[in-house]
Every structure is written in structure tokens, then in C-alpha cells.
Design brief:
Structural class: mainly alpha
Number of strands: 0
Helix content: over 70%
Distance between the termini: 43 Å
Shape: globular
Number of helices: 8
């Protein structure tokens, strides 16, 4: 049996944490369940990360980075409307193929709001920095147009809410969306 390096194990923890936090939220997910998914002890988990919040932060940042990479790849070599539609389609495919990615985003927003409310500004700053990388990627793909980038991400947030709430692809709520970002049935 090949032993994993600490870095490989850390990657396993981040992947497992994304799944567990996506499904259970920050407060509803124990580090024990993450350790179990990875196949390590809790003490080992805490040698890799200083605490639960650090694990959640790593999972949140990774979620933003992976979503940003999807946008970058989709928009490669495209401009304007073509980039918008390509990124929209790529995002729809991402959340259809990996619903935990969408759920992790939703959990991330709640966790940041909760941390801010309790006075923890540092956590929100780190997550906002990762989110801003995504924003800047989208903005640049749209020719640095702030208004279009804002509109694209606003539609994306609405897509997140509607999909999270279980609105089916044929529901009338989707009729106002570009065809390219409507969920496929």
C-alpha cells in the first residue's frame, strides 16, 4: 500500500470537506465526519489544519478557485456575448455535474455572514478575496465591463438560488433567462 504524503492527505481533506460542508453546513458538519470520509483520525486532521474553521476556509477557497477555473476555460479565446454564453453554459454544466459545488457556495455565503455577525472579519476577508478572483476573471472575459460582469454574476446568484430551491428546468421562473443558462431537463 502506497502512503500518501501530508500534502496529498491535505488535498483529500479539502475534497472531503467540500462534500461534507456542502451537505451539512459549517455548524452541522463535524470534523469527525470529515476525518472518517478521508480515513484519518481527528488528531491527524488537526495536524494538517489548525481547526474546523481552517478546513472550511480551505474548502471555500478551493470551491471559488475551481469555479473560477471553469469560467477561465470556458471564455478562453472568446469575447463579449460569446464569452457570456460559454461561461453560463459551463457553469450550468458544473453545478449539474457536481451539485455539491453549488451547495458549498451557498454554505460559504451563510458561513461568512455568520462569522461577520459574530465579529470574525478575517474569515470573510479570505473568502471575499477568493470570490473577487472569480469576479475579476468574469470581468476580464467580458472586456473589463463592470456592468456586464455584475449582471452575469447576479444572474448566476439567481441561478444558484433557484437550483438550490429545486425549481425544475421547465418551470416558468426560468423563462427570463438566456437560453444558454437555463438548466437542461
Amino acid at each position: 500500500m502506497v502512503r500518501m504524503s501530508a500534502e496529498e492527505r491535505r488535498e483529500s481533506v479539502i475534497r472531503a470537506a467540500m462534500i461534507e460542508f456542502a451537505r451539512g453546513g459549517y455548524k452541522g458538519t463535524s470534523t469527525e465526519v470529515i476525518a472518517k470520509r478521508v480515513g484519518v483520525s481527528q488528531p491527524y486532521l488537526f495536524r494538517l489544519f489548525p481547526g474546523k474553521q481552517a478546513i472550511f476556509l480551505a474548502a471555500s477557497v478551493r470551491c471559488c478557485q475551481e469555479t473560477t477555473a471553469v469560467f477561465q476555460k470556458a471564455a478562453e479565446g472568446l469575447e463579449g456575448e460569446e464569452a457570456v454564453h460559454a461561461m453560463g453554459q459551463a457553469y450550468q454544466a458544473l453545478i449539474a455535474d457536481d451539485p455539491d459545488k453549488l451547495l458549498m457556495q451557498m454554505q460559504m455565503y451563510v458561513a461568512v455572514a455568520s462569522a461577520e455577525e459574530s465579529g470574525d472579519r478575517e474569515f470573510g476577508q479570505a473568502v471575499r478575496a477568493a470570490w473577487m478572483e472569480m469576479y475579476d476573471t468574469v470581468r476580464l472575459a467580458m472586456g473589463a465591463d463592470v456592468g456586464e460582469a455584475t449582471q452575469f454574476l447576479a444572474y448566476g446568484m439567481l441561478v444558484n438560488v433557484l437550483v438550490s430551491m429545486g425549481f425544475q428546468p421547465d418551470h416558468r421562473v426560468w423563462t427570463g433567462f438566456y437560453e444558454s443558462v437555463r438548466p437542461k431537463g
